[in-house]
Amino acid sequence: MKKLIFQPFFLIFVSVILFCHLTPKSLAVSFDLSGQISARYDLKHSNSNWQNALGLRYLSEVQVKLFSDDSPFDAEMMLNNFIFSGENAETDSDVKIYRLKLRYAATQAEFRLGLQKINFGPAQLLRSLMWFDRVNPTDPLRMTHGVWGARFRYFFLNNTNIWAWCLYGNDEPKGMETFPSNEEIPEWGGRLQFPVPHGEIGLTYHTRAVKPETVNSNNFREDRYALDGRWDLGIGLWFESTVQQQHEVYLPYQWRHMITVGADFTFGLGNGLYAVAEYNGTFLSDEMLTVEDEYRFIACSFSYPVSIFDSFSIFSFYHLREESLYVYLNWQRTYDRWVINPGIYWYPETATYSQFASSGNAGGGFGAQLMIIFNH
């Protein structure tokens, strides 16, 4: 709970709610306890060696409806419990706060405060707008660390919506960040999302104080700008374009431009074959309109529902400059509470893009994974 000490706005918000609503008539509070147990076994061959890992995780969730059933206030707490984790006879266990937030939800507005997930943008596999989360498309649990902060959203009647956020106390890199933020300096940003014919457009901005890893380095300012859009024209089409400027002359590159374009379509084959394809380019330079280094990827995925219980998926990523291929195949069988998820994967031995590695499989090599999930 040490983090809460450094989140003054979180404590202020709790105090305001209690002051405004804590009357004898409003003391009714309802609880909803749920959770997820997942067991995972990995067997991987890498660098001429076989490695194995066994993990057991319990994700517990408590949802609280504050004051009354029709109150706009509710709260959520989730704990990430590593009951057991072992890799080549090494074991470890840990308990961390996974989510902890208060929420105010009205007809056209929502306000969240605390440790939460913030993500946006239409891309699915190669996300240029992966600013605050690290959701892995090959991870059956879709888990990602949250960020401490406040987020506000307002929805207009014409489907336009605005976002505003302020983050504080986050001392580890998030999203695709290389250096962490200065946890004592708030970072903030916003987003405008509005409808256009057959789709929608989004404009996003974020700024933060970066804290380099070297001891003698000073903080420097980082600004991010983004434009994204999605259209439904029989097939789904989208793009994400971002520009990042780091105001530090000693960095090798001060500018980073990223572009993602993608499409999806469901083919009328059998029960319906869903396909996604995306291209991503990352361009680094010292000046805004120049390119000194670049990385390009293409990715595709196919999902097919074999039956009401079974589905098959394949994810493929290709690094154009390294000419390296990443492949992950997955079969999922789903019951009311149980999910059985076996998968096999192959990543090149010199894999450098671990974003595509599924949970527990970072790095190169080939192997198999079995995950069993129980929800209650």
Shape: globular
- Overall mean pLDDT: 86
Q: What is the number of independent domains?
A: 1
Q: Approximately how much beta-strand content do the residues carry?
A: over 45%
The unreliable regions are 1-6, 356-361
Q: If classified by CATH, what would the architecture be?
A: Beta Barrel
Organism: candidate division LCP-89 bacterium B3_LCP
Protein name: Porin
Task: Describe the fold and architecture.
The protein has a single domain (2-375), classed as Beta Barrel (Porin). Mean pLDDT is 86; it is low at 1-6 and 356-361. It has an 18-stranded antiparallel beta barrel. It contains two helices and 18 strands. The radius of gyration is 22 Å and the shape is globular. It is mainly β and 376 residues long.
Summarize the structure.
The protein is mainly beta and 376 residues long. The chain is built from two helices and 18 strands.
What is the strand and helix layout of this fold?
Blueprint: H1 2-5, H2 8-21, E1 30-46, E2 49-65, E3 73-87, E4 90-105, E5 109-116, E6 147-155, E7 161-167, E8 187-196, E9 199-210, E10 220-232, E11 236-246, E12 255-267, E13 273-285, E14 293-305, E15 310-319, E16 324-334, E17 338-347, E18 365-375
Antiparallel strand pairs: 1-2, 1-18, 2-3, 3-4, 4-5, 5-6, 6-7, 7-8, 8-9, 9-10, 10-11, 11-12, 12-13, 13-14, 14-15, 15-16, 16-17, 17-18
